[in-house]
Amino acid sequence: MAEKALSRRGLLAAGGAGLALPALGPMAYAGGRGPVPADLVVYGGTSAGVIAAVQMRRMGGTAVVLEPTRHIGGLTTSGLGATDTGNTSAIGGLALEFYRRVYAKYHGTPVTDDSPARYTFEPHVASEVFADLLAEHDVPVVLDARLRSVDRRGGRIRLLVTDDGRAYEGGMFVDATYEGDLMARAGVDFTTGREGNAAYDETLNGVQHRDKHQFVHPVDPYVTPGSPASGLLPGVAADALAPDGTADEAIQAYCFRMCLTQAADRIPFPKPAGYDPMRYELLLRYVQAGWRGPFYTTHQMGGGKTDSNNNGAFSTDNIGFNFGYPTGTYAERARIHAEHADYQQGLMWFLANDQRLPESVRAQTAAWGLPRDEFTGHGGWPPLLYIREARRMVSAYVMTEHDCRGAVRAADSVGLASYTMDSHNCRRLVVDGVARNEGDVQVGVRAPYGISYRSLTPKRAQCTNLLVPVALSASHIAYGSIRMEPVFMILAQSAATAARMALDRGGVVQQVPVAALQARLRADGQFLEWPPSEPGEIAVDNVSATGVTSAGTWKSSTAISNYYGSDYVHDDNAGKGTAWMRFGPELPAAGTWDVALWWTADANRATNVPVDVEHAGGTQTYTVDQRSRGGQWVVLGRHTFAAGTAAGVRIRNDATDGYVVADAVRFTPAAGAS
What is the largest CA-CA distance in the chain? Predict the structure, then answer.
């Protein structure tokens, strides 16, 4: 019996619960017609799953997307509309096209190679963009396709079977789930929890007792204050605090990324069945101790709506209640999902209604509610739980803190990540008689860094036709930086590209020629190294052995991420008019060159930095605002220069209104110039 084709309009009107796309033909299995064949079978209709299928179609192959829920787009369409981008200049390929399509949806403009990108958006807009991509590329999507079994022979997945008995046969497979379910069923090595620091010689893994999203007032954790014998309040674990860096099975907390609105027709926060005010007794005591918020974020996405996330010591993160999720059965996961929904809906109802709270706290929350035009099939509540981490593959290359910090660089990069090494809290414990959270880490990376192709491919002895761009091979803390929706899309495009190339070369993903893969990725707009290089470019860093002279006082720093090289220098916002730094390249030939400047941006930077470009015709002074556009090459202008060392770029701090940064300068032969 052919699968029923659904109305796209109807599905989108239901809040993006699914997408109507080309219906699959007969799919009976075991005694009926044969398996459904495709060049690429994608398990997981996340943002990565959509992109992987689209890329395979653009390369001339066939693809099908199997999604175990009724929701397509993952967290990108389930409330996470305030995209965690890191350095947006490191986002390329189909990921960048997605965000350009979002901008085009809002502005009614065509999408071109230089269209603006928009990284904040309402959930239904993201759903529409994914629907367009899938429909334009004729990609079939199957919903409610829970994985029952995997037929693996000779180190290759032959087919997978879903709960309804349907089978899908592929030359290549991509596991695009947050959970790594296909990977695990295929017998691929994986891990969960936090490695100890000693495992990969890291500093930020394992137990981390720090000060972010932490109680700033002491709060008694016992049912009867001061009485350990009375037991612990709900949400507080009896575990002892282990030393920092200790390995354990804890994973960072999950929550729902709520889409909130203050519209007059908003849906008030529902009171869950079985609501128990004791679940929020710890928060009540925290408020009584003096805390007045924030209790959650209200990041504006457009349309008067928010992407609301965890914020503070007691917030939307249901700390410690997800440890069984990564390897749990569908029933166990459903229970954890429901428990998280009850907790978070109860939290919002508590904040808006409990008469023991100050009126200001109640009014602040009650001013918000759920939108009537998002997630309409779920009462305005996001359908997907934010699975920040679950299983992580263990392959021939494990991404670690050393990759994030730029201490090591994978030669087989297939995409860039750039977000902070970020872990939400994992446990809530009793430390010295008061409640304390543990596990939150927020440490910036130096600059965008490459992700190894080997971290997307299983060990060859385990599976040769599977790629894993979401639950990839990474330590807990490195995954905390990589685990962002744009990066998942970047890696999914790279995985699908490799899958197509493997099909053309014998079908073994571990044998795809890296140089050829990287060449195709670059041709498709992916960025693989940082900073992106230009043909013939000459860059001079502040620590270059030659070509750099200076006057006044300059201080080295790495405090603000996305700097060029090993550090940058600044004038300490002092000695105005006395400090300058000159960058002088040695140009191999006379001609016309584009001159670009690199700096790290921050709110304390100067908006009026004078920069002198010394060229063959004299000197031209530009004024640079260093509070924005940091972490990338910013072209100042195009000039003619003589060969040799006469050219120069001088950064000065004359009459500047903040910190002045000197980091790097680049000269690039002008396109079309002789």
Answer: 84
By the 8 A CB rule, do 442 and 420 touch?
Answer: yes
* Identity of residue 344: Q
Beta-bridge partners for 141: 65
The H or E element that residue 444 is part of is none
Distance CA 637, CA 607 (A): 18
Domains defined along the chain, listed by start = 35-192+414-523 (3.50.50.60), 538-669 (2.60.120.260)
Amino acid at 280: Y
Helix (H, G, I), strand (E, B) or coil at 552: coil
Q: What does the pLDDT read at residue 482?
A: 98
Which pTM value belongs to this model? Answer: 0.86
Mean pLDDT for the stretch of residues 334-344: 98
Q: How far is CA 424 from CA 338, 398, 431, in A?
A: 20, 21, 18
pLDDT by residue (tens digit) across 481-494?
Answer: 999 999 999 999 99
- The beta strands (E) that lie in 320-359 are given as none
Overall size of the chain counted in residues = 674
Question: Which is nearest to 383 in space by CA: 45, 21, 6?
Answer: 45
In this predicted structure, what is the pLDDT of residue 567?
A: 87
Write out the DSSP string of 109-123. Answer: ----TT-----B--H
Task: Give 455-488 pLDDT, tens digit per residue.
Answer: 999 999 999 999 999 999 999 999 999 999 999 9
Classify strands 36-43 and 167-175 as parallel, antiparallel or unpaired: parallel
- Let me know: does 243 contact 306? Beta carbons within 8 Å: no
Q: Where are the beta strands (DSSP E) in 466-590?
A: 466-467, 538-541, 548-551, 555-557, 568-570, 580-583
What is the Cα–Cα distance from 488 to 491, expressed in whole angstroms? 5
113 exposed, middle or buried (CB, 10 Å; 0-12, 13-18, 19+)?
exposed
Pull the structure tokens for residue 390: 């679950």
Name residue, tokens 């050393």: 402
Residue 534 pLDDT level (bands cut at 50, 70, 90): confident
Reported as type and span, the H/E element at residue 594 is strand 591-598
d(CA 308, CA 348): 12
Contacts of 523 (CB under 8 A, 6+ apart): none
Confidence band (pLDDT; 50, 70, 90) for 672?
A: low
Are residues 134 and 19 in contact, defined by beta-carbon separation less than 8 angstroms? yes
**How far apart (Å, rounded) are the C-alpha atoms in residues 122 and 374?**
8
Q: Which of 447, 604, 605 is nearest to 532 (CA)?
A: 447
